Amino acid sequence: MTLNDKYQVVIGLEVHTQLQTHSKLFCGDPAFFGAPPNTQVSPVSLAHPGTLPVLNKKVIEFATMLGIALHCNIERHNYFARKNYFYPDLPKGYQVSQHTAPVCKGGYVTILTQAGEKRIQLNRIHIEEDAGKSIHDIGDDYTSIDLNRAGMPLLEIVTEPCIHSAEEAYIYLTTLRKMVRWLGICDGNMEEGSMRCDANISIRPVADTRLGTRVEVKNLNSIRNVKRAIEVETVRLIALVENNLPVIQETRSYDADTNKTFAMRNKEEADDYRYFPEPDLPVINISEKFISEINGLMPALPAEVQAKIISAFMLSEYDAAQICSDKADADFYLELVTKTDHYKAAANWLIGPVKSYCNEHGISPGEFPLPATTIAVLIELAENGTISFHNASEKLLHALIKYPAKNPTEMAAELNLFQDSDMESIESLVNNVLASLPGKVKEFRNGKKGLIGMFAGEVKKLSKGKADMLIVNKLLTEKLNNPT
Q1: Count of alpha carbons within 13 Å of 60, Cβ hemisphere only?
Q2: Which residues are CB-neighbours of 15 under 8 A, at least 6 positions away?
Q3: Domain ranges, ordered by start, for the chain
Q4: pTM of the model
Q5: Which of 25, 117, 131, 401 is 20 to 30 Å from 465 at the Cα level?
Q6: What is the DSSP secondary-structure string of 416-443?
Q7: Residues of the chain with pLDDT under 70
Q8: Are 62 and 23 contacting, i.e. CB atoms less than 8 angstroms apart?
């Protein structure tokens, strides 16, 4: 038995998602990323005396939407609390959050692991405002403060301690990020800080049901780093226990360059924050009518769309999962299949050339420069053998992106891309190739069947890419397997 088999790691994750509202949680300051420091502030977010907060209704809509999607109980009556602590980038000296009355309780996220489906149980989803940002690397002897982020609306999604591997944590975060992007409530960009994760980690003997002393690894800035931090922290905790050393409840950080965690401070308890109800904000009352209205605005969720794509268009689970990796991808595909009945080819075009172009140019399929009707024409040209898939997806596609007003068929003619489907001319090319490579022909007939691809490539080269490869492969198969 290895040490990892002897102990079970127990993980709970706290994920902060910054909401895509136009303004902050309690004032009208803009809520956009990348503005010059301290330009998206006002007396409210700077905590000037006498200023009062006003709740952003859109935040409640987004919280309710996520709660519905994650099977939570939406709390009809909830309120805000003050979480008191001092830090230079916290102007008020307290953070407005939710403590005993979160907007959503319970719920779960279904993940797909190698062992099958697993439900990651949620404890709560609550609303809170973000703090500002301390910048330590501008000057050697001072810290700079940017308060643009102060007051940004966050949803904190807290799991139960029910995750038992770094891989499960990775899959959970990937699934959660997909959901918040799908709903359009958060862009999930961990590198820009709009999604941040803290991991609470402990270990216990496999047969034990009690929770061990936990440590919290804070502010992990990528899903990959969450996985790596959990892995190295698990090894550290096991080493402590095996050497009869105490596990200290503390807050730690992760250094991606050294792949190590390091202590920051002792872990605070709830009492340390001296929570009490926020006196400047009223209780939030969420009615059944409001929940019903939000439910009516909800898009079909990924699992539902994926099941529809599999059943309606006869695609594999893999293809459907690729298409539903992002809502923009799924929307593009569902529009594309209204223009063509080549459903598998449509999936291949989206997953292949369309996504490749989008990734290269940092855009989503919804921003692709050609409409679905044009892609449908390209699919038809490739599927009926008028031009090869390579020429359609490389030469013709990029020519049309450059000249989108052009007719695809006319552009194909201008570029001389039409395939040669004349049986006699192709047979002549095949005969020439086989006659020029007698040694390879003998190897093929002695069992080296993989050489057929090489023969096909030579015919393609000889025809300058214009020979219909379906006819080429048919003729090659006949002539190589049936020598006269």
Answers
A1: 20
A2: 156, 157, 158, 173, 176, 195, 196, 197, 198
A3: 3-289, 300-414, 423-481
A4: 0.86
A5: 401
A6: T---B--HHHHHHHHHHHHHH-HHHHHH
A7: 1-4, 267-271, 420-422, 483-484
A8: no
